[in-house]
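Standup notes, structure subgroup. Blocker cleared on the alpha-L-rhamnopyranose input:
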Amino acid sequence: MKIQSLITLSLSAFALALLAGCGSTKSADNSAGASGASPKSDGAVKTVFIPKSAGNPYFSRMEVGFDRSKGSAGIDFSTQAPQAADATSQISVIKNQVQRGQQVLVISPNSPDALNEALDQAQSKGVVVITADADLVGNESHRAVGVLPVDFSTIGPSQVELLGSMIAYEGEIAILSATSDAPNQNAWIEGMKATLKDPKFAKMKLVDVVYGDDEPQKSSTEMEGLLVKHPNLRGVIAPTSVGLAAAAQVLIKQGNYPGGPKASGKGLVLTGLGTPNELKKAVKEGAVQKFQLWDPADIGDVAAFLASQLGQKKLELKAGLEFEIPGKGKFKVGDKNVVIAGSLVTFDKENIDKYDY
Ligand code: RAM
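Run returned:
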């Protein structure tokens, strides 16, 4: 890694002055204050996080990151969830929060494109828009930066390999996703489909993709539907924490996992992306052997830092820029201004008790 390409950011005035020397400081005319989005009297950058939906422990864990970093980052943090996991509900929240004078919107978008206009309007008023957790895939120009948990291109292949390794790379498989418009799940599903074309997976046949809309009840119903509709189903990937937790409950209830009390034949293997706390019981009972995720709090930490820097116009993002978050480490701005905040972890009964989120 080239030394000269490393720009260390810290919250000290000195380091920020260095950034100004890199051409990152904007003139007062560009300041957010022109639009009514102005900092608090203590200088904290008014930042709101808009998750995909309410009541999802995954987003609560992201908020842990924001909360623990807000002091050091210098943001005045709040959150407002939309009423449902759809773009229309998020648009009202965006408008409402812009009216309330937020300087930075951090959003996990429910659509890759339906928020474009609302986000553009916010940006035209001087509000900084950061996507976090999910991105505006194909519409990245409608936000300043995307803070993603891991490189999205690795998730589809990792999930297919994980399921394949547990079903001897053979049999009918299905996907239980979030909403049909979810930009992160859809990107990962594309990755899964591409991976399945590899000869290694030639005997794994994707027979269905269903959507539980990140609602526990709908996810359970969709999982039950898959089991009825595909009696020979060998595996399910649920790349959504809500979907995976709900599907695991269905398997526990039905007992049809490998070694389960009602397994017919080899039993159904379930994996996906989920929070360890929601899956502990299923892992201990054997209904889920292995699944993956990252720590969502890492996304909150990085987004809090960038919200502060961008809200104060102290950072000019460009591909290749490296920065350091005090106490957390070095990060890099990649193509399309994507910053990767964490890393993929595979959980199983050996390690799951080490995690508490
Ligand atoms: C759900 C949401 C979120 C996704 C996780 C894995 O909580 O859909 O966007 O990142 O699952």
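Discussed briefly. DSSP finds ten helices and 14 strands in the chain.
Next: hand off to the docking folks.
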